[in-house]
Amino acid sequence: MTKVAFIGLGVMGYPMAGHLKKAGHDVTVYNRTAAKAEKWRGEYGGATAPSPREAVQGAEIAFSCVGNDDDLRAVVLGDDGIFAGLGSGAIFVDHTTASANVARELYGIGKDKGTPVIDAPVSGGQAGAENGVLTVMCGGDRAPFERAQPVIDCYARACTLIGPAGAGQLTKMVNQICIAGLVQGLAEGMNFGIKAGLDMDLVIDVISKGAAQSWQMDNRAKTMCEGEFDFGFAVDWMRKDLAISLDEARQNGARLPVAALVDQFYAQVQARGGNRWDTSSLMHLLMND
Ligand SMILES: NC(=O)c1ccc[n+]([C@@H]2O[C@H](COP(=O)([O-])OP(=O)(O)OC[C@H]3O[C@@H](n4cnc5c(N)ncnc54)[C@H](OP(=O)(O)O)[C@@H]3O)[C@@H](O)[C@H]2O)c1
């Protein structure tokens, strides 16, 4: 049993912290909206705290999963932040999808105060978090990674150290860049099939056994064809992730023509009120032009 703290009980953090508790760890949670933390305690047991600083006191590992770079700084730095409460030698693992720059910044501040920091963004969505089968991409030093990995394993099916601080976030960017073009291709294929008058259930069934198969096809093609987008990974989050990726590409010189175009398509989805729709809502633009 490990004494841990979890900061940020959103769509992802809530079930992840729940897996930690169910695995037998001693869990204290903090959430900005306290009612969510109380709900979590009612469901899983464990303890709540009124600030990140108090939540992490005595913890061997502190986890966070909040929104973006600014949110991350808000819960880590300052008088009531994670770094103010975490004892020397305790590890900080951040599951937020954020920039590689903020990951390196927090790693540097942590190093000065004896707190190893692992950037550990996840893939697998709400279902992956609820079912405890997330993919976790890590950046940081090997020794703390090896201490944290067995604990992370209670909500992961894969957890890999990719490289130094920031490498986890860079890997998540690769993931999102791959997904952006793939989802647009899937939407175009589905829309083409509908316009051609094909039975799309039969089409999806046969082509998903061939070279076009993907997680997106297995999980999103049918709901795309039905025009259902009110679930899943929000367009607002995808735009945040693509902004981070495009910014990083400006620094490293990588060309991202398709990701940049798809980002603009997502801006159009937002303009239609689809901020919280699933990323498969690129189909909405094709079906409703
Ligand atoms: N949802 C997915 O499918 C998915 C998949 C992979 C990765 N991610 C990434 O995982 C992270 C969390 O996503 P999510 O879907 O769980 O988001 P969410 O449901 O919006 O939850 C965000 C959490 O962060 C807290 N938070 C945000 N800003 C804060 C601040 N300034 N100070 C303190 N707490 C703050 C929120 O507290 P309140 O409850 O008070 O608002 C909430 O607990 C994001 O970086 C996202 O890109 C999400």
Molecular structure report:
By secondary structure, this protein is of the alpha/beta class. It is 54% helix and 13% strand. The chain has helices spanning 13-22, 34-44, 52-55, 69-76, 82-85, 100-112, 125-131, 142-152, 167-195, 200-207, 215-225, 235-252, 257-271, 282-287; strands spanning 3-7, 26-30, 47-48, 61-64, 91-94, 117-119, 122-123, 134-139, 156-163. Strands 3-2-1-4-5-6 form a six-stranded parallel β-sheet. Strand 1 (3-7), helix 1 and strand 2 form a beta-alpha-beta unit. The model has no long low-confidence stretch (mean pLDDT 97). It binds NADP nicotinamide-adenine-dinucleotide phosphate. NADP nicotinamide-adenine-dinucleotide phosphate binds at residues 8-13, 31-33, 36, 65-67, 71, 74-75, 96-97, 122-123, 125-126, 233, 237.
Give a quick summary of the entry.
This protein is an alpha/beta fold and 289 residues long. It is built from 14 helices and nine strands.
Helix content: 40-55%
Q: Kindly state the mean pLDDT as a whole number?
A: 97
Secondary structure tally, helices: 14
Rounded Rg = 20 Å
- Shape type: globular
- SSE run: EHEHEHEHHEHEEHEHEHHHHHH
Low confidence ranges: none
Q: What is the strand and helix layout of this fold?
A:
Elements: E1 3-7, H1 13-22, E2 26-30, H2 34-44, E3 47-48, H3 52-55, E4 61-64, H4 69-76, H5 82-85, E5 91-94, H6 100-112, E6 117-119, E7 122-123, H7 125-131, E8 134-139, H8 142-152, E9 156-163, H9 167-195, H10 200-207, H11 215-225, H12 235-252, H13 257-271, H14 282-287
Parallel strand pairs: 1-2, 1-4, 2-3, 4-5, 5-6, 8-9
Antiparallel strand pairs: 7-8
The chain binds NADP nicotinamide-adenine-dinucleotide phosphate.
